[in-house]
# Entry
Amino acid sequence: MTSEAPKPISFNSARFLVSAAQLQDCPPDAGREVAFAGRSNAGKSSAINCITTNGKLARTSKTPGRTRLINFFSLNRENCRLVDLPGYGYARVSRDMKDDWQQHLSHYLTERRSLAGLVLVMDIRHPLTDFDQMMVEWCEHNKLPLMILATKADKLKFGQAKTAMLGIRKALKDSQCLEHLVMFSATSKTGLEECRKGLSDWLESGQAEG
# Structure
């Protein structure tokens, strides 16, 4: 008896699943998930909300970096998830809390078997910060597929945005992990379909067998 083909992933179906302070609080490590990382002011929440057509899914805050939990969102296909990782850079938290937070994040990135890829969100006007470079190196070291969303592209003229993209591509020309580099704007929806296609490819890969 042939099994039915799984339904296509609908990002509009994303719903909040659970927040986790540490690895043992995460949902069961089954299926596939894609995580979003980025500095606190890079537009990560806006990007997630744009991709899922849900303006309230990932909370955008006037105080960047307030989200200190790993937030999981379910999709319409069983055991497929999007994951919003804590933002970095502007959080006014104690050093101990920040270290603790980084440790839990490191555990997630290192030990989560269902992690199919990482989306690194960076402001196209200020790309490849120290945090961004660290995440690229981490993906390279762990052979984790990487997508870069160069956000806020609407803030630049098209020629400036293209030049910025060329600069990012040149800087990362030796990065084997980089599978997608997308010029993105949550405001104008630039790059939205390209981003969704890359996410679908990662989430659907290997799903048919299991």
Q: What stands out?
A: The chain is about 30% helix and 20% strand.
